[in-house]
Amino acid sequence: MKNIAVFASGNGSNFQAIVNAVKKGKLKANLKLLVCDNPKAYVLERANKAGISVFLIERQNYAGKKEFEDAIIGRLKAEKIGLIVLAGFMRILSAGFVRQFKSKILNVHPSLLPSFKGAHAIKDAFNYGVKVAGVTVHLVDEKVDHGPIILQEPVRVSQRDTLKSLEKKIHKEEHRIYPEAIRLFVSGRLKIEGRNVRVE
Ligand code: GAR
Known about the structure:
- By secondary structure, the chain is an alpha/beta fold.
- Helix content is 36%, strand content 25%.
- Helix 2 links the parallel strand 2 and strand 3.
- The longest helix is centred in the last third of the chain and has 24 residues.
- The structure holds glycinamide ribonucleotide (GAR).
């Protein structure tokens, strides 16, 4: 079974969805580690409850981004991590980091990429007035919110939607498709050719 590390910075509802999928036996993987860069994040409580080891690492305790990332890489190697799952990790990983784990990092983003990249995708899409928002799960490459797309799910925006209600709808879809995308990845059924990802 593949060893997975989830990276998260905040609430951790996606982390929870992954934990639940593993517990229910829907996702056959060894959820080995939570990497968190924020000592106030609620995801830390979730990990403790689920009995998952936590690597809490604060950027401010390191001289530079390289030292910070090297410390993370050291821990990932020690734990023999085969897949990194970014779940609301609000930092951009360097190209050097991404190269070390080429095609082994997944990310969930709350928009239909390539629309609305960045840290405020739901708000940006809502304010833009889109009629269809959505969720993307993709492989991470050296560019932000850019790598090959594994799964995408549209979410209709109704006239009655508020930013809050849209957020709720989007999170619900994230919690459904992220564990599913991870399941496809660990099953070895994903064939990646350039930007094209097929399920075999
Ligand atoms: C999720 O909506 C995720 O898609 C988003 O952060 C949220 C984390 O929620 N990620 C990004 O915007 C990355 N650019 P969570 O902590 O409850 O899982």
